[in-house]
Amino acid sequence: MAPLRYLSGFGSEFASEDPRCPGSLPKGQNTPQKCPYGLYAEQLSGSAFTAPRTHNRRTWLYRILPSAVHTPFSPMEQPYLTHNWKSSDPNPNQMRWHPFSIPHINKEKVDWVQGLHTICGAGDPCARHGISVYAYMCNTSMVDTCMYTADGDFLIVPEKGTLHITTEFGKMDVFNNEICVIQQGMRFSVEVDGESRGYVLEVFDGHFELPCLGPIGANGLANPRDFLTPVAWYEDRRVPHGGYTVISKYQGKLFQAHQDQSPFNVVAWHGNYVPYKYNLENFVVVNSVSFDHMDPSIFTVLTCQSVKPGVAIADFVIFPPRWSVQTNTFRPPYYHRNCMSEFMGLIKGSYEAKEEGFRPGGATLHSMMTPHGPDAVCFEGASNAELKPQRIAEGTMAFMFESSLSMALTEWGQKTCECVDAEYYKCWLPLKSHFNPDWKPE
Ligand SMILES: [Fe+2]
């Protein structure tokens, strides 16, 4: 199959028509009395109508039938998707999970929505404040089913398997080492090629944006041109007798409605509220070229800001392959206690601060003020290493969801999931004192 086409840019005003229907975008206005090709006009708002222009997000969709044509929503069972943070007691421990188990297709068919498991989170979608972190483990495609979240924006990080995602805006293929963002309200359906696994961050407060670069200047980190948005694609497909299911994630629970047509019936659209993907290989790494460490904020790809200046509801941060050149410096991450919560996952390779135990498809959580840092093996090695320029993290991509909110673990995250690594704390126990009261400078 030919690779998909995309539009390039971040936060841009895009316009796209399915080439089968040239002229399907109304000229010079949004809601003509009759739209070209007999389409319906529908606006999808991603911000308050009156939001300042810098934050105003909306898209006009020109579709075969409006989204309103469906039966009433009814509750749907999905026991692993929850925002019930009170279901288990608070737990400040360092947490680590072995790679999350993917169900075997011969035992059980699980699609992307059924495979969503909430690990931890904070806040409340009703108040539009908070986040939720999920793992997904699935083995089969969603068939005649789509979902949307009314609660927030999904940032999806595949670790195993490509995601073929159809959205109302068109199609995206999201490969290993790529991420995608599907914002509040956007309907999408996920096809997979086989066993698939990855991570999802949902933010309830607002949308992801590129971090300000300050003195770095106009270029660097994630550049806007590397974000890719689908081009318009439609199907005029009837699925009689309510054969198509629309799943709504609403106030932390799933609901389903049925309709007789595919929701991917948008022939043309224009606007700045869109799904997008990004290849992490395109991230321009910035770091100290003299001595010491910059803080990991230099690795921020996307941020969802709170109302407090510089404080993120959640940052999406990566640790890409790069040169490490600092002189007289302990080069791995320093020991720290953070006023933020840090959830980490591994897309491929092995993470430099812990060569063992933290594996692709697994995860760690270091909660607020919970101390952590390199394990004993890493500390001894890095303290005695020859400090020549060195490629680090080659073939590796670790990431972090860092939040100013104090996240709580779900019952599944800390108990039911068989992948919890109860031995994690032991990686620091061999650290020994090097203190020498008679030490003299050389
Ligand atoms: Fe950390």
UniProtKB/TrEMBL annotation:
GO terms for biological process: L-phenylalanine catabolic process; L-tyrosine catabolic process. Fe cation binds at H336, E342, H372. Residues 5-280 form the Homogentisate 1,2-dioxygenase N-terminal domain. It catalyses: homogentisate + O2 = 4-maleylacetoacetate + H(+). InterPro entries: HgmA_C, HgmA_N, Homogentis_dOase, RmlC-like_jellyroll, RmlC_Cupin_sf. It comes from the Eukaryota. The keyword Oxidoreductase applies. It is an enzyme of class 1 (oxidoreductase). Homogentisate binds at Y351, H372. The active site is at H293. Its EC number is 1.13.11.5. GO terms for cellular component: cytoplasm. Coiled coil: none annotated. Homohexamer arranged as a dimer of trimers. Catalyzes the conversion of homogentisate to maleylacetoacetate. Belongs to the homogentisate dioxygenase family. This is Homogentisate 1,2-dioxygenase. The gene is LOC109481181.
